[in-house]
């Protein structure tokens, strides 16, 4: 196959490209220039897709003996990921920018361009298992539970998955680093990027305030209606947040307060005790079925495992499609579940890796 290897400049994508070469594919490496300020450099493990990363990707491609290109996707990334991120927070929702980047950049914009140029598939360094059974893609958790990225890939369509390769799915991070060192890849010990790549200093509140300005409002006790303080914008908060609320007086019980709900129209941030954070019902919109079959082809309410965060936030659940909305009843309540997050559904399988049934965007919780 002709394979386009997306090379971020990190160890995972470099080893994934190397394995694609070893598999006998005709591989071309490409680095996506996503920053509108290409002179920006990585600071330790913060940020990605920088000039430094582009150089690291090129050196890896040279070592592998494959052609290498840099494609400018900065405008598309700004529109589909950064502006979407800002708009979602402004509306009182909590988006996952990594999920959106996979969905709209790597497996939409990049994949579309790759197919138009005659490539058969895009290869990435994601930790997830992918196979085809009876002509349908099956996306599963990776062998390395701590690095599993199936959650942020669960929004991909079956057609996108048919043109995707995830060579690292059966490996652990330790194995990948060891292999990179054996191959002589300079990125073998390079730190993983973390946090939000386009907010390298990690200050999300400042990033949003710089773009949305100050939008004063109040913090209100959800039980009593008492005004507890003021704030400069609901975009500075997310459901489940405990620190940085700006409330001077402690709760009568002496226990911490958490953000329970955001009301952007009135500028109200509702807060309360941890016990009021528990959620056992989720309604989500725009469901996507990676295999192409609704809930994996299982009729009626489906026993599954629901996940609401990239790492952690799982519960046994019962899921059902009602009209065009996904209804999920959690058997074990979860905390910090916010509108805008994705809920991914899995069918447990201890031997082959849990199978992804579908994903949708959370609209309401109870």
From TrEMBL:
Pfam family, one: tRNA_Me_trans
Domain (tRNA-specific 2-thiouridylase MnmA-like central) ranges: 206-272
Coiled-coil stretches noted in the UniProt entry, renumbered to this chain: none
Key words of the record: ATP-binding, Cytoplasm, Disulfide bond, Nucleotide-binding, RNA-binding, Transferase, tRNA processing, tRNA-binding
Catalytic activity: S-sulfanyl-L-cysteinyl-[protein] + uridine(34) in tRNA + AH2 + ATP = 2-thiouridine(34) in tRNA + L-cysteinyl-[protein] + A + AMP + diphosphate + H(+)
Interaction with tRNA: annotated segments: 147-149
Annotated Gene3D superfamilies: Adenine nucleotide alpha hydrolases-like domains, HUPs, Translation factors
InterPro entries xrefs: MnmA-like, MnmA-like_C, MnmA-like_central, MnmA-like_central_sf, Rossmann-like_a/b/a_fold
Binding site for ATP: 6-13, 32, 125
The tRNA-specific 2-thiouridylase MnmA-like C-terminal domain, residue ranges: 280-362
Cellular location(s): Cytoplasm
Any one of the GO CC terms: cytoplasm
Location of the active site: 101 (nucleophile), 197 (cysteine persulfide intermediate)
Enzyme Commission number, as recorded: 2.8.1.13
Leading EC class: transferase
Residues the record marks as site: Interaction with tRNA: 126, 341
GO biological process entries: tRNA wobble position uridine thiolation
GO MF entry, a single one: tRNA-uridine 2-sulfurtransferase activity
Function noted in UniProt: Catalyzes the 2-thiolation of uridine at the wobble position (U34) of tRNA, leading to the formation of s(2)U34.
PANTHER family found in the cross-reference section: MITOCHONDRIAL TRNA-SPECIFIC 2-THIOURIDYLASE 1 (PTHR11933:SF5), TRNA 5-METHYLAMINOMETHYL-2-THIOURIDYLATE -METHYLTRANSFERASE (PTHR11933)
Family listed: Belongs to the MnmA/TRMU family.
Protein name: tRNA-specific 2-thiouridylase MnmA
Organism: Goodfellowiella coeruleoviolacea
């Amino acid at each position: 196959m002709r394979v386009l290897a997306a090379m971020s400049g990190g160890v995972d994508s470099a080893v994934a490209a190397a394995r694609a070469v070893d598999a006998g594919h005709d591989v071309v490496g490409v680095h996506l220039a996503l920053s509108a300020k290409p002179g920006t450099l990585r600071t330790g493990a913060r940020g990605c897709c920088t000039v430094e990363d582009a150089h690291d990707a090129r050196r890896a491609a040279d070592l592998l003996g494959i052609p290498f290109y840099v494609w400018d996707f900065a405008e598309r990334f700004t529109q589909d990921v950064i502006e979407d991120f800002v708009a979602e927070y402004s509306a009182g929702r909590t988006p996952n920018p990594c999920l959106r980047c996979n969905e709209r950049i790597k497996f939409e914009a990049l994949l579309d361009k790759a197919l138009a140029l005659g490539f058969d598939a895009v290869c990435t360094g994601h930790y997830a298992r992918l196979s085809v059974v009876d002509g349908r893609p099956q996306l599963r958790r990776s062998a390395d539970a701590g690095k599993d990225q199936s959650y942020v890939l669960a929004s991909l369509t079956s057609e996108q998955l048919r043109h995707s390769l995830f060579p690292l799915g059966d490996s652990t991070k330790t194995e990948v680093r060891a292999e990179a060192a054996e191959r002589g890849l300079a990125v073998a010990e390079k730190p993983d990027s973390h946090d939000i790549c386009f907010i390298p200093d990690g200050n999300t509140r400042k990033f949003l305030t710089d773009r949305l300005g100050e939008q004063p409002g109040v913090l209100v006790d959800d039980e009593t209606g008492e005004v507890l303080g003021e704030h400069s914008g609901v975009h500075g908060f997310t459901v489940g947040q405990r620190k940085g609320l700006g409330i001077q007086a402690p709760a009568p019980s002496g226990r911490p307060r958490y953000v329970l709900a955001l009301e952007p129209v009135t500028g109200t941030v509702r807060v309360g005790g941890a016990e009021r954070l528990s959620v056992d019902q989720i309604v989500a919109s725009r469901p996507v079925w990676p295999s192409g079959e609704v809930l994996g082809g299982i009729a009626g309410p489906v026993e599954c495992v629901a996940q609401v965060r990239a790492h952690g936030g799982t519960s046994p659940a019962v899921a059902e499609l009602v009209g065009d909305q996904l209804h999920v009843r959690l058997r074990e309540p979860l905390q910090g579940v916010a509108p805008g997050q994705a809920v991914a559904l899995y069918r447990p399988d201890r031997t082959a890796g849990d199978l992804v049934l579908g994903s949708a965007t959370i609209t309401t919780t109870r």
